Amino acid sequence: MKKQAIELGQIGILLPLAAFIPFLGIPAYLASTIMVLISHNLFAKYYKLPAIFNQALTGALITIIGAAVGLILIIVSVLPFIFNTIQTEGIQNNMDDLLTLIFGSGVLIGAMVLILLSTILGYYFWFQSLKMLAQKTGVDYFRIAGLLYFIGALTSVILIGSLFIIAAWIIHIVAYFNIPTEKIRAEYETVPETGPQQEEKV
């Protein structure tokens, strides 16, 4: 079970590389999240610590649902501007409308705040899960990755946040490939020596 958890985690954590291929960004992210969650579930069963999976699942759901709802709200708030721009055949005449939309729309601001808060809260739960996984596997890279994910979420309003998340992802990869595999050792029964025995010849 542990070997399967490691292999699924290794594949899952490398899947975001497929995001560089056009149109595969979101599917690669979702597939990666699912495989890493399955890996956490297997680790949770192996170590008999359900919180490893529960915390990760909570973090994933909060992040995905928050981002999805926020994206829908952004699309709904931006659509009127897009239609108006198409009708007037240009964006230059609608700059005032665009600025009003960005800074004056409560829906748009609320959507951005929702995405930010869900990202911070989601990565907090991921951090807790990775911290427990680090304790059980003895690989501290998991804890470091979780901490950097959380810091990246906190600073995501500025460009430096994405740098933290990229660094966390790289360390997360290193963590999965540094989990010690358990060696099967044969146990031999040893008989204590009581002293040299001398054979008597008659």
Can you give keywords for this protein?
mainly alpha; 202 residues
What's a concise summary of this model?
This protein is mainly alpha-helical.
Shape: elongated
Order of helices and strands: HHHHHHH
Q: Mean pLDDT, rounded to whole units?
A: 81
Q: Given the structure, what is the number of helices?
A: 7
Residue share in helix: over 70%
Main sheet characteristics? none
Number of structural units classed as domains = 1
Q: What percentage of the residues does DSSP assign to strands (E)?
A: under 5%
The number of strands is: 0
Describe this entry's structure for a reader:
- The structure is a single chain.
- The chain is an all-alpha fold.
- It has one domain.
- The protein has seven helices and no strands.
- It has helices at residues 2-14, 25-46, 51-88, 95-104, 106-137, 141-154, 160-176.
- Helix 1 (2-14) runs antiparallel to helix 7 and helix 3 runs antiparallel to helix 5 (106-137).
- The protein starts with a helix and ends in a 26-residue tail after the last helix.
- The relative contact order is 0.11.
- Mean pLDDT is 81; it is low at 183-202.
